[in-house]
Amino acid sequence: MLGVISKISGPVIEAKNMLGVKLNEVVRVGNAKLVGEVIRINKDVATIQVYEETSGLKPGEPVYSTGMPLSVELGPGLLGSIYDGIQRPLDVVSAKHGAFVPRGVEEPALDRKKKWHFKPVVKNGTKVKEGQIIGTVKETETIEHRIIVPLGVNGTIKGLKEGDYTVEDTIAEVNGKKITLMQKWPVKKPRPCIEKLTPAEPLITGQRIVDFLFPIPKGGTASIPGPFGSGKCITGETPVLVNNELKPIREVFKYAEKKGKKLVENENETLIELETPLTIQTFDGKTIKESIATHVYRGHTDRLIEIKTRSGRWVKLTPAHKLLKIDSELRVVETPAERLKEGDFILAPRKLSLGDSYKELKVEFE
């Protein structure tokens, strides 16, 4: 343990008694040991960006130091894996914990048990330097993974031998420094290179909105951001307020299929771009206000949760759909449906502003 939480503001927290912590150091936050990164230091107070849902965190909970910057594991096994933003292997997490990532879960990014066949390309006794290729691993049928001498390591190589190794096994030594198939690298430190080539060839995705408005070069970088809760996880019969009228979301989707353009369509999900945006009501963290929807999304889930209130309201949701819960300290907290329990208080609007018009909305109760 290093410090304690003193302030919480969404995904950003402040912790005191943090003398000795370093900027960009990874810390574990709270009793759940959520992953966070130190982004500011002021005397003994550290500001920490938490990379997981902070619901339920309280002032006074511990903050643990790791002494390491946010890093990724580089080595055989990266290809074919699916990771979240802090390199947790989602396929492994799903197999062990289900479809949703538990808070604070830790899993190694690269498989520690799988063995890879390593072939040296230099001989024992050869003088090598940082960045030099010393061997290869056949990672896929078409891709050869090249094993290089780590940064800052120079000297005579010994103990090099062809064979099957895990990513943690020692494959050689250079001046007493053990070399493995895997290396850890800080994410905010650029990888060294002799020359950085300027991307000159476009990556044709086949999506006109990307290729025309947001072209991506081969070898470049792109991201598609989206806020928490941007996918509405509700069933087809759920009524939604669209263009100031209550309609089942299934009808809205059918309308979109006729009037919109399908950007994605497969057995698991469908994404449609609307020809004419729809007027909807959204919550901005303070109030419910009018906004527009430009896309409609339908996805597959293996289970649903039914939420019923004492007043008779009910709704069926996916486990990940977030509702606004009032916690014991009267704070409004976005909470996934699967984490709600009997007796929790949730927020529901009594009155909505629909511009200058007045419209009676019929909502069924049990």
Automatic annotation (TrEMBL):
Residues 231-350 form the Hint domain. This is H(+)-transporting two-sector ATPase. Its EC number is 7.1.2.2. It comes from the Archaea. It comes from Candidatus Iainarchaeum sp. GO terms for biological process: ATP biosynthetic process; intein-mediated protein splicing. PROSITE patterns: INTEIN_N_TER (PS50817). It is an enzyme of class 7 (translocase).
